[in-house]
Write a structure and sequence with these properties.
mainly beta, 210 residues, single chain, four-stranded antiparallel sheet, five-stranded antiparallel sheet
């Protein structure tokens, strides 16, 4: 193995397999959690392409988005790597209060169009996968909590359970897409990178949650 990226303040250690030189980024690979690291294996040969670890921490959930791997770590840090570099880091607040028991199941949820939803009991946070930019945040209703392990897809929408002790069942399920909560009276909002024209979906009204 050849060291590819120097250690970073977050304890990053991204190591490239010397066996895949001189063209380490061609072809396809699939990531797997291997102990305390995320490892990418060539889909054709099964050989190791690269390995990413963080000192003193382990990945609890991994999501593949195109040629990137998004990982949730046991300290509540979210990272994005493409095998060349660790592109961005984002820390989840209050992770120590819920992550050990929850285990990371269902926390990382792709919304499509380059947007990642991070579902935690207190909030849903959306990031743009291209650069980790925070796009929107939806807090849980007072007295309620989101259940990331019970979220599911229905077409373009992500349905997230939000159990409440005293609320109608219609208020205990939240529908989301890349633009936030789906409501009948939304107003336009875009998530494109700076310099690109904003996308406007003419099939339905877009909105910022009120």
């Amino acid at each position: 193995m050849a060291h590819h990226v120097r250690p970073a303040p977050y304890g990053d250690r991204l190591v490239l397999s010397a066996r895949v030189e001189p063209r380490p980024y061609t072809g396809t690979w699939t990531p797997r959690v291997r102990g305390t690291a995320v490892a990418a294996y060539d889909t054709r040969t099964g050989g190791l392409r690269w390995r990413y670890a963080r000192g003193g921490h382990r990945p609890v959930a991994v999501l593949t988005e195109r040629d990137e791997v998004i990982a949730l770590w046991d300290d509540g840090l979210i990272t994005d790597t493409d095998g060349r570099t660790v592109r961005w880091h984002r820390a989840l607040p209050d992770a120590a209060e819920w992550l050990p028991a929850q285990g990371g199941t269902g926390v990382l949820r792709p919304l499509g169009r380059g947007i990642l939803a991070v579902v935690t009991p207190r909030r849903v946070t959306a990031y743009r996968t291209a650069d980790g930019d925070l796009r929107w945040l939806l807090p849980a209703r007072r007295g309620c909590a989101f259940r990331p392990e019970h979220a599911l897809r229905r077409g373009p929408a992500l349905l997230v359970a939000q159990p409440c002790a005293h609320a109608a069942w219609t208020e205990q399920l939240v529908a989301l897409d890349d633009l936030g909560r789906i409501t009948p009276d939304r107003t336009p909002l875009g998530n494109d990178l700076p310099g690109r024209p904003e996308r406007v979906d003419v099939e339905k009204p877009l909105a910022r949650r009120r």
